Amino acid sequence: MEPNSVKVNGVHFDIEYVTNLHIEGENCEGGMWLSERVIKVDDSLVGDRLHRVLRHEVMHAYFGLSGLTELLPANVEEAICVMSETASYEYLYDGFN
Ligand SMILES: [Zn+2]
Fold first, then answer.
1. What is the pLDDT of residues 68-90, one digit of tens each?
2. If you measure from the C-alpha of residue 95 to the centroid of ligand 1, how many angstroms do you get, rounded to a whole number?
3. Which one of 27, 34, 50, 79 has the largest count of C-beta atoms within 10 Å of its C-beta?
4. Distance 57 CA to ligand 1 centre (A)
5. What is the pTM of this model?
6. All domains of the chain, ordered by start, with CATH?
7. CA 97 to ligand 1 center in whole angstroms
C-alpha cells in the first residue's frame, strides 16, 4: 500500500505520486517541498525502491524543518540522506538478531 501522507517531527506532509517526475528540468525519483509540505515521488516506483526514496525525502524534510538545510552544504545533506535510506532500513528490518 502506498502511503499518502507522513508526519515529520509532528508536521503533516502530503505524498503525491507523479508520472515522469521532473524537478528543475531533471528526471527525478523524488523531491520534497518544505513550504508546501509535500513530498512527490515518481509513480513508477514500487516496493522497496519506493520506500527507499520516501525515506530519503523524509530525511530532507527533517533537515528542512530543523534549519540544518540552511547551515550545511547541499552535498553534505544529500550524502546524509542517501546514507539514511539504508541505515534506517537496516535498523528497522534487519537489525538486532
Ligand atoms: Zn536528496
1. 999 999 999 999 999 988 887 66
2. 24
3. 50
4. 6
5. 0.90
6. 5-94 (1.10.10.2910)
7. 30
